User: Fold this.
Amino acid sequence: MEGMLRPDSFKGKTIIITGGGTGLGRSMGKYLLQLGANLVITSRKKEVIDKTAVELINETGGKVLAVVCDIRKYEEVENVIKRAEEEFGEIHGVVNNAAGNFISPTERLSHRAFDIVVDIVLKGTYYVTLAAGKNWITKKQSGTFLNIVTAYAWTGSGYVVPSACGKAGVLALTRSLAVEWAKYNIRSNAIAPGPFPTEGAWSRLLPGDLVKKFDPSKRIPLNRVGEHQELANLAAYLLSDYSAYINGEVVTIDGGEWLRNGGEFSHLEDIPNDMWDMLEKTRGK
Ligand code: HXC
Ligand code: NAP
Assistant:
């Protein structure tokens, strides 16, 4: 649960985190500040990011700029880049963390409900990526993208179909630009987190009594949910120069969850030891 990188690893570096006012975005931002970064946080709710900025400055002594931005609006995205450069000079990394999600049988969704999630997750991410990438390329600056996806970006998942479609697109964007923009010294990587408790995710994915009925830790081989510092350590590493040769990778941090759910015989962990003893005795008979 401790920070992993050297305390000054991000000294003089500026990182933008979309959706940085809450949840995992806030936790990643706090750790980057502790490592010496200048931080830019954005989201739609001014009161939320302003409050977080004050808290993070008090908690870390670092510099935080909060800029309101709906990532579905390209001009607002361009404004974030402009404001970040005015405040801190060069931008070194962008974390595409903002997302929207909820659970629902797909046949119950309106087309607008589908749009709303895909527009935030995919369109918002490519708007931010396009604006930041063009800026770096024009100014001949290097940069690093870190995109937050999920393991169902490649498996798909029922009941969160708009999010699965959006995250699959973000993963394709990550891998495509890792190759295309490498010549500009722009790296693109992704993290696929399993369950990490946040108010935003839990209220939408485990509403009401579902949280009692479907304890997420029970699905995970390591038998627990993730700790925010574990994710922050990985994010900081992938944004830092220590990972300079990692490009186009998606790192899963889920305690083994997705592989377990794909494993044909994973359910055999329900067999108690005395039954294994009995099966051993009958082996080969
Ligand atoms: C079905 C829903 C719905 C729900 C909204 N809609 N919520 N449909 N089930 N639970 C429909 C509405 O009826 C409407 O369609 C359309 O979606 C737009 O709804 P609004 O409420 O007007 O949208 P808005 O206020 O912009 O809110 C966007 C949101 C909201 C995505 C619905 O949840 C939000 O702001 N989320 C941001 C944060 C977030 O989602 N964080 C969790 C990320 S967790 P109609 O047809 O009625 O107009 C995550 C983890 C993944 O991604 C992996 C976990 C392991
Ligand atoms: P969260 O706190 O709800 O974070 C989502 C953030 O996105 C919010 O700060 C929200 O702020 C912002 N946002 C939504 N729509 C936006 C828009 N149009 N423009 C700008 N910002 C917008 O949830 P979280 O759990 O920390 O999720 C963070 C990321 O981790 C997401 O990409 C999510 O898919 C991913 N993830 C989470 C988990 C988990 O278990 N928590 C697991 C896998 C992946 P506003 O509402 O103020 O705009």
The chain has one domain: 14-284. Residues 190 and 250 are 4 Å apart (CA to CA). The chain has a mean pLDDT of 97.
